[in-house]
Design goal:
Blueprint (H helix, E strand, L loop, with lengths): L3 E7 L3 H11 L5 E8 L6 H14 L7 E3 L13 H4 L21 H11 L5 E5 L4 H9 L7 E7 L15 H5 L1 H8 L5 E4 L1 H4 L3 E2 L1 H8 L4 H21 L4 E2 L3 H8 L4 E6 L1 E3 L10 E3 L11 E7 L1 H12 L3
Parallel strand pairs: 1-2, 1-4, 2-3, 4-5, 5-6, 6-12
Antiparallel strand pairs: 7-8, 9-12, 10-11
Helix pairs in contact: 1-2, 1-10, 1-11, 4-5, 5-7, 9-10
Length: about 325
């Protein structure tokens, strides 16, 4: 079977970085056509810089990295330096990238790539706010019929929110964009906090990254060392959840995950619950299902896959 062609849309972020590394380490299953950057965890100039740092860390300066939207569709930008540090990639000491940004806007790259490939052959993998994806759909509605699916990290239901009491960060930053994406008709797979909070980097799992003895293994261990200080203090958990790598791992081995095909709506009106993913888990409404909402994973299998793949880089 030929590898899945994907576009990674991202706002790196330590966990975004690990998701990108996992994708680049898995060429049998995944062909990364390009990486599009959006403002989110940190402003756009840093997310587009960090994506190139990660590509060079993986030994893949050939990957095209595009800068995209620098603000949400209708709201002021909210960032998360309190989680990821001022650079967005605090932890390891990695050199500034030498590879340039690709020419052109991320939104145009998304549109042109989907139009250039046969329908159903390119998957969109958003790891941050959905501004780029929604803007592409607004600018070129025809691409909705071209995308194979969207596999995204965002939202939460039983776990509530991590930036407000009801909203997960990626959706909260640009709920209007999320609303557009969830109403697009494109098949969607959602990795919400309900599953990502089960992908915990415990000390033994982080020790396994460091024991790889490579620049990548050490960098990932240092990223999660930094990242986890916030989550351990906030949640009292045994380590940091690796949110975004769940997207990549699903592409490689979907059997690690389980969930339900349900209706998911995005709250865009109430400031109290702005950005909430209203998931009809119990199917109590007559709203049609529009997303596969993942709620569980084989955590040991996930970390075995991640460690094995990172060892390749």
């Amino acid at each position: 079977m030929s590898p899945q062609k994907i576009i990674i849309d991202t706002d790196p972020g330590q966990d975004d970085a690990v998701a990108i590394l996992l994708a680049l380490a898995s060429p049998e299953e995944i062909e990364v056509l390009g990486i599009t950057c959006v403002a989110g965890n940190v402003p756009l100039d840093l997310t587009s810089k960090n994506a190139r740092i990660v590509c060079e860390l993986a030994g893949r300066p050939d990957i095209k990295v595009f800068a995209g939207c620098d603000r949400p569709l209708g709201r002021d930008l909210v960032t998360a330096e309190h989680v990821h540090g001022k650079s967005g990639l605090d932890g390891p000491d990695l050199p500034d990238p030498t590879m340039p940004l690709a020419e052109g806007h991320a939104v145009d790259f998304i549109i042109e790539t989907l139009r250039a490939h046969p329908a159903g052959t390119v998957t969109l993998c958003p790891l941050g706010p959905l501004t780029n994806i929604a803007t592409a759909l607004q600018k070129a509605p025809d691409i909705a019929e071209k995308a194979a699916k969207i596999v995204l990290m965002g939202g939460g239901y039983f776990e509530g929110g991590n930036i407000t009491s009801t909203a997960e960060f990626n959706i909260y930053v640009d709920p209007q964009a999320a609303d557009i994406v969830f109403k697009s008709g494109i098949p969607i797979v959602v990795m919400p906090l309900d599953v990502t909070h089960k992908a915990l980097v415990t000390k033994p799992r982080n020790d396994a990254f460091r024991a790889l003895g490579t620049q990548v293994g050490t960098a990932v261990a240092q990223m999660t060392d930094f990242f986890e200080r916030f989550d351990i203090e906030k949640y009292g958990s045994a380590g940091a959840p690796l949110h975004d790598p769940c997207v990549t791992a699903f592409l490689i081995n979907p059997e690690l995950f389980s969930g339900r095909h349900i209706n998911v709506e995005i709250e865009t009106q109430s400031e109290l619950t702005m950005g909430m993913t209203v998931a009809d888990w119990w199917r109590v409404t007559d709203r049609p299902a529009n997303a596969t909402f993942i709620n569980d994973l084989d955590a040991d299998g996930f970390f075995t896959l991640l460690t094995e793949r990172l060892a390749r880089l």
